[in-house]
Design a protein that fits this description.
ribonucleoprotein, alpha+beta, 16% strand, structural constituent of ribosome, Ribosomal_bL31m, 2 helices, 133 residues, two-stranded antiparallel ribbon, three-stranded mixed sheet
Length: 133
């Protein structure tokens, strides 16, 4: 049966043209069911990290190569010993700049309002207050 033949067939033989629109039909498919594989197809993918190192992994993603700009090599949380990550604020999208233009830099003041209260609480509790730089 070709793909162009109709799926619906009549139950009875030929009827008069008056009843052809009203005759009951039954759905008929002669195609075999093709089962999907139980596991997805896995493809090779090469990941290029920010420092240039690469590794290969199997994945279902059709993309063959992925270049990472933010990963474990340049993240301060993964590398706390690297000092160059200490005071750097990455502002790739410009959000920090827009925030500072709108609200100013008052939230980053060196003298905190509750610092004196914190020192007095630490003295009362018997622990040492943090030393100022």
């Amino acid at each position: 049966m070709s793909a162009l033949t109709p799926i619906l067939r009549t139950r009875s033989g030929t009827l008069s043209p008056l009843f052809t629109a009203l005759r009951p039909t039954v759905q008929c498919r002669n195609a075999n069911l093709i089962r999907r594989p139980k596991r997805p197809y896995l493809l090779d993918q090469i990941i290029i990290l920010s420092d240039g190192s690469t590794y290969k992994q199997l994945t279902t993603s059709p993309k063959g190569i992925i270049r990472s700009t933010k990963d474990i090599r340049n993240n301060p949380l993964w590398n706390p010993s690297i000092k160059e990550f200490g005071d750097v604020e990455e502002d790739e999208a410009g959000r920090l700049r827009r925030f500072r233009e709108r609200f100013g830099m008052g939230f980053e003041s060196e003298t905190e309002e509750g610092a004196e209260d914190l020192e007095s609480l630490l003295v009362v509790s018997g622990t040492e207050a943090p030393k100022k730089k």
